[in-house]
Write a structure and sequence with these properties.
The complex is a heterotrimer. Chain A contains twelve helices and six strands. Chain A is an alpha/beta fold. Chain B is an all-alpha fold. Classes of the chains: A alpha/beta, B mainly alpha, C alpha/beta. At the B-C interface, helix 1, helix 2, helix 5, helix 6 and helix 8 of B face helix 3, helix 4, helix 6, helix 7 and helix 8 of C.
Chain lengths: 294, 236, 350
């Protein structure tokens, strides 16, 4: 028994799959179809911790990602920074990725300077926030920061001595931080912050990571990790909570980059499920065709 | 001798790194070793740059397949180096810097190097990363086929996790009674996804991680004791 | 006998080689004399150990002399918080070394066959038959990563096979240091195979440190040259699926291996054979067939046994805690769990 359709599907060119994926991703972006999420416990825990911390708490923002993973991680970096600024915490930006420096600058520009750079309670550099910049040495850099920040880096990213910044007074090491928030795209990143700073120094830590990394970091939750925000889904969850608590202006679509990316992700997932079902349909049809019948 | 010295260096530094983990006074020695690696790797970068040029020049001169790409590579390489070294478009940021030529930071916003990073490098690598979606779809279409019992289990798990990862999981709660006032909605497939991740995936990951850790110990010992020298070309 | 397709035959040969004390080219260097203590390797090893001890004393002494000039505080030579970790490290290292020594003295050990490693020669043979090149990617990280070193160790074996069959082997690297080490490994392998003319340093070249620049270059080469066999052994991240899918598209037989757990599913989905985590580290020892190295694999297995025992002990203790909690102290406070003592005292600092 032969079927022309089955023969066609058996020899399906992968470029058709690529075209399907392009349409599944492109259409929601062009039509502005977003997707909301119900917050999950690991995301809720981080949100609640930032809410609970008293105003002016010290938070280390470790931005260990690059432009490659920015599509997935930048929205959550914006979300975390926005939330910390809304609570008026002191922010210490740092990265152990050489390509992470522009990511910090971009986050500062988009959130700290644009949204909180003016008004009565404006964020002032050196008083409310500072940028340590890039620290070379991977895990060794983290380890050094845990024992002595000034030894790891005596100046900030602008070349100013750390002793000249009022935000740094009484902060000899990472031990003085009330929370570490790490946005991690891989190695070195979340795992190293847990192993070399958070667990030995007993500092609460929460990580925002890529979807692929989540399986690697899940074993640390909830004992060594306070919260875990994974991929675009986690970023949408965080934005949802931020929009619920601070609707003006964070319920606006233009302040919710992850929400808009969620639509593309949802349709891509649907296509993947469809492809798996189609693949199995072809497989079963082939088996049926090969089975000898009396 | 050419092999013994590198092996000796590897052994000594390796053992110091191990001992320094337990003996705080040795930590500075460990730091020295790390610094030396950075120095050696930086010198090797020049070697790499030279090799890159030679390799692509040879490809262009031999008119090998894809020699056009080699031209683009070499042009991009030299333009980026020139823009960075000459600090094209970088301006002094302070009065102190005004006294010296070329004193503005090369990565300064608005400089040529920044422009290359922002408008060339960044979109190109983001595009490359995005291509992963296409490859994942193609691999899923091919790999998840119900060929045997194990493959069926893998297939079902993949479908559950895929549905559980997006808001489509809410379909599974359509036939359930509405949640009590104030309680979080219940989605059976989301719970199943979490159960798979927390139980099977975490258990599997930990088992693999223990195996890897032991493998690392044994391989490190083979290297530190000089038993395996194949990575340096073995014995002559 | 079809050696490459018969798993049992290969297993038997490896066990025999281990039993007999090894007779490969590498082994002949190790066992020059009949008694292991007389062999050249042993003498070299002793010299090295002595030199090592000397440096272990001299180096810290120099650094301490420098540091203690302005300090009168008593120096703590051992971090007692890490005692359990130190004991565990010593125990595992000792087990591995003891097993190596036993293997050297002729004790036979069974090592389970690994499909991916048995297929390596088949992959090289296929490339030879088709007259197409072989691609070997030793990961994208530097040589300080143990995964990269493990990849280079396997490269040595693959290069030897390729040299014997005179099949071109392309090794693009993303780090300059890895390129240098890979060149050394391939050159030595060509010499060992008796084909010094096989070595062509142009085939082992540096591309770029940038992850996706490297991927673009390697995938482009794959689509143009259509290699018949692809080896991806080392540390990989997001590029794993790009490489494996490109290999699949050109119809190559693919063998991958990494200790990066997040990338294993991609390799499993897209490659013919995948070395899972520890198998990558075992590969070089397995392929060498040398008794000392096979002994190390056995030592690793004992480590795994110890991990299983400790896991069972921990699970039992936690179960006991939840079945019968310890009750309250005289002050009316809940007594800590039994397993708490393990985490707070024994594992503290580990």
């Amino acid at each position: 028994m032969t079927s022309p359709l089955l023969n066609k599907l058996n020899g399906l060119d992968r470029r058709w799959i690529f075209l399907g994926m392009a349409l599944a991703v492109l259409s929601p972006i062009l039509l502005q179809i977003g997707s909301d999420e119900t917050p999950s416990p690991p995301t809720i825990k981080l949100f609640d911790q930032i809410e609970r911390l008293p105003e002016g708490s010290r938070i280390l923002m470790a931005m260990d990602f690059d432009p490659t993973s920015a599509a997935e991680l930048y929205p959550m970096a914006l979300g975390f920074t926005r939330h910390c600024c809304l609570r008026h915490h002191k922010l210490y930006f740092v990265t152990i990725w050489p390509t992470g420096k522009p990511m910090i600058e971009s986050t500062i520009k988009a959130v700290v300077q644009a949204d909180f750079g003016s008004g009565d309670r404006q964020y002032v550099y050196g008083v409310d926030y500072m940028n340590l910049g890039y620290l070379a040495g991977d895990a060794v850099a983290i380890s050094q920061m845990s024992s002595d920040i000034r030894k790891a880096r005596p100046q900030d990213a602008r070349g100013t001595s750390l002793d000249e910044l009022s935000i740094m007074s009484g902060v000899p090491s990472v031990k003085e931080m009330d929370l570490i928030v790490n946005v991690s795209a891989g190695f070195p990143g979340g795992k190293e912050w847990v192993q070399y700073a958070a667990t030995p120094q007993k500092i609460p830590i929460a990580i925002g990571c890529t979807g692929v990394q989540s399986t690697q970091l899940f074993p640390y939750y909830p004992d060594q990790l306070l919260g875990l925000v994974t991929g675009i889904r986690g970023a949408i969850e965080y934005e949802t909570m931020l929009a619920a608590k601070y609707p003006n202006p964070y319920a606006n679509r233009n302040k919710r980059p992850a929400f808009l990316r969620g639509g593309a992700q949802r349709w891509a997932h649907r296509l993947m499920i469809g492809l798996i079902v189609l693949g199995n349909g072809i497989h079963l049809a082939n088996r049926y065709r090969r089975t000898p019948r009396r | 001798m050419s092999k013994t010295v590198p092996i000796l260096i590897a052994s000594i530094v390796g053992f110091i790194m191990i001992v320094a983990n337990f003996s705080p006074p040795l930590l500075p020695v460990r730091q020295i070793a790390e610094d030396w690696f950075t120095i050696v790797a930086t010198i090797a970068m020049m070697l790499g740059g030279a090799n890159l040029c030679l390799h692509h020049l040879k490809k262009i001169s031999d008119r090998e397949a894809g020699w056009g790409f080699s031209t683009v590579t070499l042009l991009s390489f030299f333009i980026t180096i020139a823009v960075g070294l000459l600090k094209v478009g970088a301006v002094p940021e302070s009065e102190q810097q005004l006294k010296f030529a070329w004193s503005g930071p090369f990565q300064q916003e608005g400089s040529g190097f920044w422009w290359i990073y922002q408008y060339l490098f960044s979109p190109i690598v983001s595009t490359m990363f995005a291509l992963l979606a296409f490859y994942v779809a193609s691999a899923a279409f091919r790999a998840f086929r119900a060929k045997n019992v194990e493959a069926i289990l893998l297939l079902l798990t993949a479908l559950i996790v895929l549905v559980g990862q997006t808001r489509d999981r809410e379909i599974t709660s359509l036939f359930l009674p509405p949640p009590v006032e104030g309680a979080l909605p219940y989605f059976p497939i989301a719970d199943l996804t979490e159960f798979i991740r927390k139980t099977f995936v975490t258990a599997g990951q930990r088992a693999i991680m223990i195996g890897i850790a032991l493998g690392v110990v044994a391989t490190s010992l083979r290297i530190l004791l000089g038993l395996d020298r194949s990575y340096l070309g073995g014995d002559e | 006998m079809d050696f490459h397709s018969d798993t049992n035959a290969k297993k038997e040969i490896i066990t025999t080689r281990v039993k007999s004390g090894g007779q490969s080219a590498f082994e002949s260097l190790v066992f020059v004399g009949k008694r292991p203590w007389d062999c050249r390797e042993r003498v070299r090893f002793t010299k090295k150990t002595l030199a090592m001890l000397l440096f272990l004393v001299v180096f810290p002494a120099l650094s301490l002399a420098d540091e203690s000039a302005g300090s009168t505080k008593q120096r703590v030579w051992f971090d007692t918080g890490k005692t359990s970790f130190a004991l565990l490290t010593i125990a595992i290292c000792a087990t591995v070394i003891i097993c190596t020594e036993l293997a050297r003295r002729g004790k036979p050990f069974y090592v389970r066959p690994i499909a991916g490693l048995l297929a390596m020669e088949e992959a090289v043979g296929r490339a030879t038959e088709m007259g197409k090149p072989i691609l070997f990617v030793p990961g994208i990280e530097d040589i300080k990563e143990i995964d990269t070193v493990a990849g280079l160790m396997v490269l040595s074996s693959v290069a030897k096979m390729a040299a014997e069959y005179d099949t071109p082997l392309e090794v693009p690297t993303s780090r300059a240091l890895v390129m240098t080490a890979a060149r050394e490994a391939v050159q030595a392998a060509a010499l060992a195979a008796g084909r010094p003319d096989y070595y062509n340093e142009d085939r082992i070249h540096y591309i770029t440190d940038e992850q996706f620049g490297y991927v673009a270059s390697v995938c482009g080469w794959m689509y143009r040259e259509k290699p018949a066999a692809c080896f991806f052994l080392g540390k990989f991240f997001a590029e794993s699926l790009f490489l494996a899918e490109a290999g699949n598209a050109v119809g190559a037989i693919q063998i991958a291996g990494t200790a990066e757990t997040t990338q294993l599913p991609f390799f499993v989905a897209a490659c013919d054979y995948t070395l899972l985590g520890e198998e990558l580290f075992a590969a070089s020892a397995y392929l060498s067939g040398e008794p000392a190295q096979m002994g190390m694999l056995k030592g690793q297995d004992f480590g795994k046994l110890a991990a299983i025992v400790l896991l069972l002990f921990g699970c039992s203790l936690a179960t006991w805690d939840s079945i019968s909690p310890r009750g309250k102290s005289e002050e009316g406070q809940n007594l800590p769990r039994r397993s708490q003592w393990i985490t707070d005292t024994v594992l503290k600092g580990g």
